[in-house]
Design a protein that fits this description.
The chain has 267 residues and is α+β, with helices and mostly antiparallel strands. It has one domain. 36% of the residues lie in helices and 14% in strands. It is built from seven helices and four strands, in the order ααααββαβαβα. Strands 2-1-3-4 form a four-stranded mixed β-sheet. β3, α6 and β4 form a beta-alpha-beta unit. α5 packs parallel to α6.
Length: 267
């Protein structure tokens, strides 16, 4: 393994350790502080940068009119590309830090509707989920500044998809292509209903809106980045995110019971 691969592998093990300790109510002390210092704190400013069109404008080398001279297909950021996720604890903390976290009375309804889709699709409650099997639930609305309603999305379940792409919301490549992940697709599908400015390729000025997203699994670093990028595409919008861990979601789906380990008396 190269030094970069070793570092990435170490982060994977650190994420697993943090999540296990948190599950058992033992997270704290040296490991938590080390993870915060070595992983979370370097990532946070990179995420905040992606939330602002001006701060991240250098990625596109825009001219005075706002026309993009560079058209990247993904986010090129060596810091973000080092880890596939921050884990459920620090993903939640990052969303809270960026004013994107949401704990509201719609959470239970989003859980129910998402799990319903997973059951209909006969998704297996495997130990680790496949991204193509996951679903995100979203609600949102669009309106003009004068209050005239453009579009209201009462509820929508979105899975691994291929929605209309937007230059402002790009995936992060970590180990494999993550562009079709459900959380990112939920935002892109929402933007299909919005009026797009052909010049800057973002949502037109004078439009405001709000979207809230529930993920049935902890968002990966690419989806978390996309949640940050949403506001540079739609500057007049707010976005709120909440999520479950897969450990919790898998308890409510699938038709197979838990694996039973036989003891000597059963043989």
């Amino acid at each position: 393994m190269t030094d970069v691969e070793k570092q990435a592998d170490a982060i994977v093990h650190a994420v697993v350790a943090v999540e296990l300790l948190h599950w058992h109510g033992k997270l704290g002390g040296t490991l938590e502080n080390a993870f915060r210092k070595c992983v979370y704190e370097p990532v946070l400013p990179r995420l905040k940068r992606l939330a602002d069109r001006k701060l991240s404008g250098e990625d596109y080398r825009m001219d005075a009119s706002g026309r993009k001279l560079s058209r990247p297909s993904r986010v090129h950021d060596s810091t973000l590309e080092k880890q596939f996720t921050l884990g459920n604890v620090f993903t939640g903390e990052a969303l809270l830090e960026m004013n994107r976290a949401h704990e509201a009375d719609w959470f239970s309804w989003a859980q129910y509707k998402s799990r319903q889709e997973l059951v209909i699709a006969e998704t297996e409650n495997a130990e680790d989920p496949a991204a193509k099997d996951l679903v995100s639930f979203s609600q949102g609305h669009l309106s003009w500044d004068d209050g005239k309603e453009l579009r209201t999305v009462l509820e929508r379940a979105v899975g691994h998809n291929d929605a209309t792409q937007n230059i402002w919301i790009l995936p992060v490549f970590v180990d494999h292509d993550r562009s079709a992940h459900a959380e990112r697709q939920a935002m892109l599908v929402f933007l299909e209903d919005a009026p797009i400015d052909t010049r800057d390729e973002g949502v037109r000025k004078g439009v405001k809106g709000q979207i809230r997203i529930y993920a049935s699994h902890t968002p990966c670093i690419s989806c978390l980045s996309s949640m940050c990028q949403f506001t540079r595409c739609f500057e007049g919008a707010g976005v709120k995110v909440t999520f479950d861990t897969w450990r919790e979601t898998r308890r409510w789906i699938g038709y197979k019971g838990p694996h039973v380990i036989k003891n000597d008396e059963d043989e």
